[in-house]
Specification:
Layout (H helix, E strand, L loop, with lengths): L11 E10 L2 E11 L4 E6 L5 H8 L7 E6 L2 E2 L5 H8 L2 E4 L11 H12 L4 H14 L4 H4 L8 H12 L6 E5 L7 H18 L2 E5 L3 H7 L2 E6 L2 E6 L1 H4 L5 H7 L1 H13 L4
Parallel strand pairs: 3-8, 3-9, 6-7, 7-8
Antiparallel strand pairs: 1-2, 1-4, 4-5, 9-10
Helix pairs in contact: 3-4, 3-6, 4-6, 8-11
This protein binds adenosine-5'-triphosphate (ATP).
GO molecular function: ATP binding; ATP hydrolysis activity
Keywords: ATP-binding, Cell membrane, Membrane, Nucleotide-binding, Transport
Pfam family, one: ABC_tran
């Protein structure tokens, strides 16, 4: 296909989104367009509406006004079956892993595949072991219950589960929270490798500036009830706005500039 005709439908397109709880407005005329292959970090102060925005994108709650399109589809107009089809195209890693505590690591990863009810069990077995191998979990550890795994291992198993259905889009909520610096660093390089190998689009919420600058191709700053700035890290941190200055200044800003010097393309 000639390049000019290749469709560039954004993976996510949010138009004039309003979110209101009673009289309290969280998002006002919020717009955001995410193209395929980006790693987007959502940042903003506490209560700025990051989690609520994620929930809107996932179609968990309908917006007060505005539209949310994922893979070109209006998420709030899709019927149940269609919504499920869309959901199978993304994976979500929750902050605390959110594993089923009564299932082994293996069965936690197998669960989304079993739910599809189309794959034979022997194929599921191979696919689960492959996903666990990708995130560095051995077959022996796969048989353990979540309570017998370390925090870092739980995150990796939860990531394997989020990747179970080969998603095109991955949501990460505070992916490195609760990990020590070494584990956090190896989790970041795992995400980076998976992003390169699977051409994933990633949307993450993170307060960890190291993770943010190591991974993001774009940063979306949520403030004043909208996306105040959106662009590559090097551009966003130079935006002249009190929140952005405060967020990236001082020690945080120094680290940011260091990482940007190490990765001058970002
Ligand atoms: N179901 C709800 N009913 C009423 N208010 C809500 C509801 N969900 C969220 N809010 C409010 O909306 C605002 C945004 O919340 P949200 O959890 O999205 O913020 P956040 O940016 O993710 O914050 P944090 O970084 O602290 O997790 C908060 O003031 C919160 O109290």
């Amino acid at each position: 296909m000639p390049e000019a005709t290749v469709s560039r439908t954004p993976v996510i397109e949010i138009t004039n989104l309003w979110t209101q709880f009673g009289d309290f407005v969280v998002h006002k005329e919020l717009n955001l367009v995410v193209q395929q292959g980006e790693i987007v970090s959502l940042v903003g102060g506490s209560g700025s509406g990051k989690t609520t925005l994620l929930r809107r994108i996932l179609g968990l709650d309908a917006p007060t006004r505005g539209t949310v399109r994922v893979f070109g589809e209006d998420i709030n107009r899709a019927n149940r079956a269609h919504l499920q089809h869309l959901r199978n195209r993304w994976g979500m890693l929750f902050q605390h892993g959110a594993m089923f505590s009564a299932l082994t690591a293996f069965d936690n990863v197998a669960q989304p595949m079993r739910e599809l009810r189309v794959l034979p069990e022997d194929l599921i077995r191979d696919a689960v072991l492959l996903k666990l191998d990708m995130v560095g979990i051995t077959p022996a550890d796969a048989l353990k219950m979540p309570a017998d795994l370390s925090g870092g291992m739980i995150k990796r198993v939860a990531l394997a589960r989020a990747l179970a259905l080969e998603p095109e889009l991955l949501f990460l909520d505070e992916p490195t929270a609760g990990l020590d610096p070494d584990r956090s660093e190896s989790f970041v390089s795992l995400i980076r490798t998976l992003h390169q190998e699977m051409q994933l689009t990633v949307i993450m919420v993170t307060h960890d500036l190291d993770t943010l600058f190591e991974l993001s191709t774009q940063i979306a700053v949520l403030a004043e009830k909208r996306v105040l700035a959106y662009g590559p890290p090097g551009e966003v941190i130079r935006v002249d706005h009190p929140f952005i200055k405060q967020f990236f200044l001082g020690e945080r800003g120094q680290r940011a500039l260091e990482v940007l010097r190490e990765h001058p393309h970002s």
